[in-house]
Amino acid sequence: MDIVAEGIDNHGLAKSRKERDQMVIDLLQTVGLQQEHANRFPHEFSGGQRQRVGIARALALNPDFIIADEPISALDVSIQAQVINLFQDLQKERGLTYLFIAHDLSMIKHISDRVGVMYLGSLVELTTSDEIFAHPLHPYTQAMFSAIPLADPDLENSHQRIMLHGSIPSPVNLGPGCRFAGRCPYATDRCRQESPEFKEVAPGHFVACHQVG
Ligand code: SF4
Asked: Whole-prediction pTM value?
């Protein structure tokens, strides 16, 4: 109970102990847990239940915006779907905005309205989810998406994968130019000398690449 109540306590949101405890029970029920879960220790929860407790903690302050950093990466696939459904239900009920940080491309496609792709700490492409999966423009995005397995065996067999070579530079010792230049199949001398501007190349579609737009 205390871990869910932390935000309530720190911000003095409850006028009494009774009100605080009731707020915790309401939050647990909002995320699909029961009153009895309030008295359990962390090791008594499954992975999915722990994620639900984490979401309850985030909801305690009635936020408009939640940053979820790899919220399902440690969960079984069946539990992932349950947690994603919970996120989506809460979004509809409470009008929430999420920033999801994730590597699971199918989950990203399923849940996102807009997608930003980062490489070595920099945003290299940003647009709507539909647009980025239909027309990825940055060479890193194209290579990453080309690695997605296809369900149709015929398509999968004819599918061209973009293989990247070269090593990822140290993020603490970056040279001039584009951060992707050492691995990019389209890199030129300009790429190695001049950092590309993050610019809008089509309405709402932003890319950082000298060769695009
Ligand atoms: S700026 Fe050059 S190196 Fe960087 S992604 Fe574009 S083509 Fe590749």
From this structure: 0.86
